[in-house]
Amino acid sequence: MTQVLRMWPLLTAMHRYDKSVSTRNRGVGVEIEAPILAYLIETRNGRILYDVGCDYNKIANPELRARYYETDDAPLPVPQMSEEQRIPGHLARLGLQPADVDVVVVGHLHFDHAGGLCDVCGCDIHVHADELAAAREQADHGYFQADFAGDYRWRIQREEYDLAPGVRAINTPGHTAGHMSLWIELPQGRPVILAGDAADLTENLDEEIAPGLCWMEREDLALESIRKLKTLARETGAAVWPNHDIAFWHSVAGASAWHC
Fold first, then answer.
1. Closest of 10, 2, 6 to residue 259, by C-alpha
2. Under DSSP, is residue 72 helix (H, G, I), strand (E, B) or coil?
C-alpha cells in the first residue's frame, strides 16, 4: 500500500527556447515557453523533492549570468526566475523549510534541474552513478560544474528502487547518461509518472519524439526510455507527466496539492 499522502507541483522558473531543444530534429525556429518544474512528495515516512530548479544566483547576478549563460561558445537562454520561485520560497508557503525535506532525487544534473541544490544542501541527494560521472566529465553544455561541486550528501544509485512504498525511481537514460524518472502511487486515483526530461512535451510521448539533446547522440536510448514509460503507464494505469510542457502546467497549476 502506498505511503504517499500528497504531491505539490512547483513552478521554479519559465524558459523560452527553440522548440528543437525539446523535440529532436523538429521545431527549428519555433520559440516555445517552457515551465521548469520540481515536485514535493509527502509520504508517511518523510518528504521527497524531485528536482530543484535553477540556481537563482546565477540568473540574478549579472557577473554570474554572463559567466554561465552568455558565453561565446555555447550561449544559453536565461530562464525567467524570481527569488520567490526558489525552493525555500515554495517550502515556506507550505509552512516548511529545507530541513523538512528528507530526500532530494535529481532526475538529472542539468542546470535547470540541479542548480537549486545549493538551497537544500543538508538533504540526502539521490542521483544515478552514470549521471554524476557524465556531469563531472562535462558530457554536454547543460552541466554547470559549480551546481554539484559542493559538499553534498550524495546517495549514488544504479538499479531501480523504491524510495518509499508508492514511490519508485525508474531508470530512463537517453537525454542524459543516468536520467531517472519517478513513478508515484497517489492515495486515490491514477498513479503518476514524473517523466523528467525523458519527455519534455506531450508531443514527445504521443509521437515518440526524442529530446533534442541526447547523450552521446543515443536517440535510440531516449526513444527506448519513452516507450518504457508508456508501457509502465499502461501496465499500472498511470498518467505520464511531461516536464516542460506549458499546456500541461496550466492543467495542474490550479491544484493546491495532488492527492487523488
1. 6
2. coil
Rounded-to-integer distance, Cα 250 and Cα 247, Å: 5
CB atoms within 10 A of CB 252: 15
Residue reference for cell 504531491? 7
Residue-wise DSSP of 191-247: -EEE-GGG-SSHHHHHTT---SS-GGG-HHHHHHHHHHHHHHHHHHTPEEE-SS-HH
Answer yes or no: is 257 within a domain. no
Give residue 166's domain range: 4-252
Q: How many folded domains does the chain comprise?
A: 1
Query: For 9-39, how does the pLDDT look when each residue is reduced to its tens digit (9 = 90+)?
Result: 999 999 999 999 999 999 999 999 999 999 9
pLDDT, tens digit, 9 for 90 and up, residues 151-163: 999 999 999 999 9
Asked whether residue 260 is domain-assigned, the answer is: no
Tens-place pLDDT, residues 164-202? 999 999 999 999 999 999 999 999 999 999 999 999 999
12: domain CATH number is 3.60.15.10
pTM, entire model: 0.96
C-alpha cell at 14: 519559465
Residue length, the chain? 260
Backbone φ and ψ of 171, nearest 5°: -75, 120
Q: What is the mean pLDDT of the chain?
A: 95
In a domain, 258, yes or no: no
